C-alpha cells in the first residue's frame, strides 16, 4: 500500500519500505542499490540497518570486481544466497563486503524499469548462513516490484510538477508581456508630454532675466523631466523583446561616455570613480540599454549610501566558464559601493519585474 505522492517524498517511501521489509523477513540490513549509467556499477541509494536504527548510502560496487554477482542480477529474478561466503554468485564479495559487515546470507531481487534492470533490492542476514524459503523469495520479488513502482510514481509526480510549474510560468510571462505592451504604450504618450516640459524648462534656464532662485527652479524642472524621460525609456524597453540597435563598442569608451550623466545624477555627496583596465575590451550591446543598466546600478548604489560615499565602476576581462564548459575570456562591468548590500531574500527577487525595496520611491524596472 506504499505510494509516492506529492506530500510523501520518494525518500520517505523507501525508508518505510526498507523498515517494513527488514521487520517482515527478520533481516538486519535492507538496501536499495541503483545501476550506474554505464551499467557497470551499482551505488547504495538507501540502506536501513535495524539493529542500529540508522540508514546509509553512497557505497559503490563495480562489475569488474564482482562479475558473477552482476551477471546474476542481469539473468535471475531472485538471487538466493543461503551461504553467501561459499555461493558462487557472492563469493567474490566475501573479503571486501561480506566479512567486514558480518553478512552470512543474502537474498537479492533485481529492480526493473522499462524491461531493464535498474538496480537491486538487497536483503542481508547477519551471522550464520540462512536457507531462504520459496515464500521469502516471492516476498523479495514483490518488494522489488514495489520499489520500482515507487520510482515510477516519483518520476511521474516530478514530471507533473515540472509541467505545472511551466504552465504557471508561461501564464506569468503572458501576463507580463501584456503588461509590458500596456506600459510601453502609456510611456510613449507620456514621453511626448515630457518633451514639452523639458524643452520649456531648458528655455527658462537659459533666460538671462531670471533671478537665481527661479533659475535653480528651472534647472530642477529640466532635471526632473530628464529623469522622467529615462523612466519612460525603461518602460518602452520593458515592452519590447529585443534590443533596438546593438553593435560592437569598446566597453571602456562606452562607460566614459556615460560618466558626465552619472555624476550629475549622483550629486555632491557621492564620489564616482572609473577604473577601466583596458580600452581594447569590446562588447556587442545596445548603447542606450547599456546606459540605462549602468544608471540603475549607480542610482541603487547611491540610495544604499544616503550619507554619501564612493561608487567605483570597473571594467576589464577575466577567465570564466563558457557555454560548453571551456574556459574563455569574458568582459565584465563591476559596480561597487559601501552600502549594506542585500540579504538572501532580496537577492532571490532582484530580476523580478516591479519588485522594489524602496517603497513608493521605486518602480522595480531597474
Written account of the structure:
The chain is of the alpha+beta class and 366 residues long. 46% of the residues lie in helices and 23% in strands. It has helices at 10-25, 67-75, 94-101, 134-206, 212-238, 251-257, 259-266, 287-303, 344-347; strands spanning 29-35, 41-49, 54-56, 60-62, 79-81, 103-113, 116-126, 247-250, 270-276, 282-285, 309-321, 327-336. A hairpin with a 2-residue loop joins strand 6 and strand 7 (116-126). The protein is elongated, with a radius of gyration of 34 Å. The model has no long low-confidence stretch (mean pLDDT 85).
Task: Name the descriptors.
seven-stranded antiparallel beta sheet, alpha+beta, three-stranded mixed beta sheet
| Major sheet size, sense and barrel closure | 7 strands, antiparallel
Alpha plus pi helix count: 9
Structural classification: alpha+beta
Distance between the termini: 53 Å
Strand share of the residues?
15-25%
Give the topology string: H per helix, E per strand. Answer: HEEEEHEHEEHHEHHEEHEEH
Count of beta strands = 12
Radius of gyration using CA atoms only:
34 Å
The best one-word shape is elongated
Mean pLDDT: 85
Helicity range: 40-55%
Low-pLDDT windows of residues? none
Write the topology of this structure.
Layout: H1 10-25, E1 29-35, E2 41-49, E3 54-56, E4 60-62, H2 67-75, E5 79-81, H3 94-101, E6 103-113, E7 116-126, H4 134-206, H5 212-238, E8 247-250, H6 251-257, H7 259-266, E9 270-276, E10 282-285, H8 287-303, E11 309-321, E12 327-336, H9 344-347
Parallel strand pairs: 9-11
Antiparallel strand pairs: 1-2, 1-7, 2-3, 2-4, 5-6, 6-7, 8-10, 11-12
